[in-house]
Amino acid sequence: MEHVCFCPLSRFAICGGTHGNEMSGVYMVREMQKQKVDQMGSVSITSILSNPPAVDACRRYMGTDLNRCFTDALLSGATTDDTPYELRRARELNAQLGPKGSPEAVDLLCDIHNTTANMGLCLIFYSFDWIALHIYKYIQSKMTSAPVRAICLNEPSSEAYSLESIGKHGISIEVGPQPTGVVRADIFNMAKEAVDLSLEWLHTFNSGSTFEGGEVEAYTPVRSVDYPRDPTTGEITAAIHPQLQDNDFNILRPGDPVFQFFSGETVKHEGEDLYPLFVNECAYYEKKVAFQLTKKITVTLPSVGVKKD
Amino acid sequence: MRKKEINFLLHRPSSSRPVCPPALAQMEVDEVVRLPRLSRVAVCGGTHGNELSGVYLVRELLKGRKQVMEEEERPPSVLTVLANPRAVQQCRRYIDTDLNRCFTHAALKGPSSGPVPYETTRSRELNAALGPKGSPGAVELVCDLHNTTANMGLCLIAYSDCDWICLHIFRHLQRKMPDVPMRYIHFDVSNKESYSLDSVGKHGFAMEIGPQPHGVVRSDVYAAMKAGVQHMLDWVCFFNSGSTFEGEYVDVFTMIKHIDYPRDGETRNITAAIHPQLQDRDFCLLHPEDPLFQTFSGETLRYKGSEALYPFFINECAYYEKGIALSLARKRRVMVPAIRVQTEREEEEEEEEE
Q: CA dist A75 to A82, A84, A163, B33, B133, Å?
């Protein structure tokens, strides 16, 4: 079987508060900074509150969504007086943790998020990153407190728009369900366990262990579905149907109900069998996404180990 | 044996709220209290702009009413109000200040000079439209729709534990919606200090349903609120048309105190979350030494009170800034007398007495 070697992964960054009202990451970073956590074995740790003004205001963002500001084009633009706060901040973060695509970038960047959708623990990353996928495999084998799933996005690096794409390897750790502005102990503990296991994996990797390959399941986006809306006002006219609500990752078949109008009628799913996620995510109402539809894929991982001199 | 009928004037024009006659505790359950008819009911949503069940329900009701404008209105007349339109538009709890704290007599009459927060202006508009609070012109019943991130099911929240209208409505909802966990919460606040929108009407309560994240609308919660409002309006029709509602006992939760999160001395940031064994356990008795909080470093902090109490509003998002992690209540059984609407003759006789 194929074996892939990587250089030691010794620089780890953990980010929270990229969305200022997603509280697990905010409190995790605050706690790490309070305890002055900066090293774990062979791994140096940087903890960062990504969007401090949004955290102070307990809002997702001040001017624009920070987690859409990390494409190559947006990062390389000129900063002027008119540049929105988050774009400025993205460029600062890129200088501090990147630059994206360069040898100076941190080895692994984990960005902590919450969702109002019933998604358990999800690891989200771009393309088939063997390191990220092995960390996912490791976390899935060790965590019993929640289902653990992987979502592979389809963007090439230059188009990757989220914070974790700055690192040589990046994982967005998405945990739910949790209301915005609220911190739940059980959700916090899940996110913390995922971060601790990621650090454990890095340290074990750096010490020379080989991680065996194998098959893992992941989900890749196919399309998103918006709410039915009033054509004049743009207001939504239906809510997620009770049979779909909280059923992220349960297969959706043609004819299954997806929306219930406030007046009572049902809208059904059309098209092929797909897996829904981000079902009723608060922040996606304005992005015109009621839920995303994905297909399940199987990825074959090579074994990995650190490069030995 | 004919039931003894009592002509209590339980709300007087000079005060806006029911006053509990001291002798009521001795009354027998089968004595029927006569109360004035409820001619106008206000259903308010979007008092907090990101509590969406009420926003969408009020919008639906307004749409429905446009369609039936030609029909004769069934009594009572129902006013549907979007209380804080600007906050609704931005999907925020409030713009400048919490609208649902702006209805004390002092705030309503307060100084008009200087910059006035948006919600202060709005509370005065609402008071003019639905009140004035404390006057005979106020609507008979205000039902203000809210959501909470706490696992509270459906709660009616009122300032009185002897407003028989509110308590009978509660019992009616409980009978009609047996699958929905339902409680009556009483805040023991004087009429002068009552601060929320529902205090503007002669009778009023907040209908609070959770759990639902703010900024999200869940079908199940929306359906419960829609049914709750419909059953309430049906009850008002039955009441106005002369039905007698039998006396019975109701469990009432009276708020005793709040508990704040542990906070960092300098930054005031919270240093712990609600403990996993307390999270989602609203209305499950909390005993001394039960786990209360879990610090972000994993330590358990315990409830140090001496009395077992009932927690509610556990981990309500909007209360972090108000310094409330949870509220605590005592439960007691209230004896609610039978009630019936006053006849027109009885109303006239009362007016002559004044």
A: 15, 13, 11, 72, 56
The confidence score (pLDDT) of residue B12 equals: 33
Q: Is A262 in Cβ contact with B60 (below 8 Å)?
A: yes
Question: At a CB cut-off of 8 Å and minimum separation 6, what does B23 contact?
Answer: none
Contact B50, B252 (CB under 8 A): no
Q: Which residues pair with B144 in a beta bridge?
A: B44, B206
**What are the phi and psi torsion angles at B101 (to 5°)?**
-125, 10
Using a CB–CB cutoff of 8 Å, tell me whether B317 touches chain A: yes
- pLDDT tier for residue B10 given thresholds of 50, 70 and 90: very low
Q: What is the sign, positive or negative, of the torsion defined by CA atoms of B49, A227, A55, A53? A: negative
Q: How far apart are CA A305 and CA A8, in angstroms?
A: 9
Q: Could A179 and B317 be called an inter-chain contact, meaning their C-beta atoms sit closer than 8 Å?
A: yes
- Is A262's CB within 8 Å of B222's CB? yes
Global pTM reads: 0.93
The span from the CA of B103 to the CA of A172, in Å, is 45
Rounded CA gap, A50 and A67, in Å? 10
Going by C-alpha positions, the residue among A139, A27, A175, A176 that lies closest to residue B294 is A27
Confidence band for B343, pLDDT divided at 50, 70 and 90: confident
Mutate to test the interface with B, among A114, A183, A246 (most CBs of B within 10 A): A183
Tokens for B261, please give them: 């999160």
CB contact under 8 A, A185 and B270: no
R_g of chain B computed on alpha carbons: 21
A230 touches chain B (CB under 8 A): no
Cβ neighbours of residue B246 closer than 8 Å, sequence gap 6 or more: B338
Residue B76's pLDDT is 79
For B23, the token pair is 């002798």
**Strand order from edge to edge, sheet including B300-302:** B272-274, B291-295, B300-302
Interface predicted TM-score (ipTM): 0.95
